[in-house]
Specification:
Length: 246
């Protein structure tokens, strides 16, 4: 079913959004603390370089008119860029590569036209992303490691609440418009299919209920379609009774 393919894509994006944002924000905090400087002080010498590598909207988030950047509003791509620009020389090579992997994954998802994933694609992509998150969280303390583990389990096998996912879309839109749009499209597709299935189930139950009660509006319909398929046996009447009670 298309819903399952959409749900896989939704799970993958939620893992990237939650896990990727978490580890990158924590790495940024750790490196700022280790530097002994403030973020504003660190950014002073990189203004021209960062301007060349960002769009105007992202640049203004790093260098706002107030002079005090709010890194909690940065999307995954911007977080990764700033970390690599400011601390690329002090981070381990493997760590830099994993951060770049998250940035590329986010950018690919933000510009993809596909809203679904087949089982093999999902399994392979999810495992790679999970491995990246675990590697990056390894140097961030037990609390962050546990949170990453929980995200990995939750978005792999845990139930997906569409209403909760839509709320996450609203939260993501604060700092990552592209990912938010992708999430919104997927949750809408899944929700639409589920509502359609629910409507079909309700329609069938209503047809059976009216048949059982002998609704005259359905007499012609019954005669043409159901009379030859649904014999008025004791067993059939019991079946109809169960359907009416559901």
């Amino acid at each position: 079913m298309a819903t399952i393919r959409h749900e896989r894509h939704l799970r993958y994006i939620l893992l990237l959004g939650e896990g990727g944002t978490l580890v990158l924000q924590e790495i940024l905090k750790r490196e700022i603390k280790n530097s002994g400087k403030t973020l504003e002080e660190l950014l002073i010498g990189y203004k021209s370089r960062i301007k060349q590598r960002t769009f105007s909207e992202s640049f203004l988030k790093v260098y706002p008119q107030t002079g005090i950047p709010d890194e909690t509003t940065w999307d995954i791509s911007l977080l990764a860029l700033i970390i690599l620009q400011l601390f690329g020389g002090s981070l381990m090579k493997d760590e830099c590569q994993e951060i770049e992997n998250i940035r590329k994954t986010r950018n690919n998802l933000a510009h993809t036209f596909s809203l679904s994933m087949d089982e093999n694609e999902y399994d392979d992509s999810r495992k790679k992303l999970a491995a990246t998150l675990l590697k990056l969280s390894d140097g961030l303390g037990r609390f962050i490691q546990d949170k990453c583990q929980n995200f990995i389990k939750q978005f792999d096998t845990g139930p997906i609440d569409i209403h909760a996912a839509i709320e996450r879309v609203k939260e993501f839109s604060r700092y990552d418009e592209h990912i938010s749009k992708a999430l919104w499209k997927i949750t809408k597709n899944i929700a639409d299919v589920k509502y359609q299935i629910s409507d079909v189930q309700m329609d069938v139950k209503e047809v059976l209920r009216r048949m059982y009660l002998g609704d005259k509006e359905f007499s012609t319909f019954q005669g043409k379609w159901f009379s030859n398929r649904c014999p008025k046996t004791h067993g059939w009447q019991r079946c109809l009774q169960r359907c009416v009670k559901v």
